Structure prediction request, 233 residues.
Amino acid sequence: MTSASSRPVTLITGASGGIGSALARTLAPDHDLILTGRGGAGLDALCAELGATPLTLDLTRPDTFAAALAGLGRVTNVVHNAGVVELGAVAEQGHEVWTHTLAVNTVAPAELTRLLLPKVRAERGMVLFVNSGAGLRANPGWGSYAASKFALRALADALRDEEAPHGVRVSTVYPGRTATPMQQKVREQEGATYDPAAFIDPATVAATIAFVLNAPRDAQLSDVSVRPGPGPR
Prediction:
């Protein structure tokens, strides 16, 4: 169990941009960070900026996770933030899209959670899933992505009850459309203009996730939706 003087160690997937990098900067003053991604200059620069530990993971290859995690020290919290999206009708998307989407968005979080649970249990920490509004409602053209996010919600719900006896909290955050590179790609696929000002600021989602992570232990914020605020910004 973590001593009162120890800083929590938080692992964030998909940390090199968007919500992930905003969350890393939000948590850096109070958390020791392990930032995962596919590697590269962006992740290295962020880790250098924040004094974080980089961890290269290929989320399409869960069979490589155990070796990648070998020698890892304490882990208090795991934030599953990485994700992929490819829009298309069910009648048009082949199994390759479905397999890739489910592998990254659902299978990888399940396997990473399984491998890290002993460490998280020892810390009485938290597993937090960054889901999506598509994890609550499936719209036309979003079948494969929504299916992966519905499955992620099921994973979180089952895990929450399974891990309660071990003192592990499990939360899901459902952001609405957020001004990220992923959203820019979605808008291109929709044939629409990308205007960051029209969407939630990644720092706002990061602040919400940090609030959930840092909530007192007598509370568990199981499901939190983040939607655009009313009126002009």
Remarks:
- Residues 1-5 have pLDDT under 50 and may be disordered.
- Residues 95-123 form the longest helix (29 residues).
- The helical segments are 18-27, 41-50, 65-69, 95-123, 143-163, 181-189, 202-213.
- DSSP finds seven helices and seven strands in the chain.
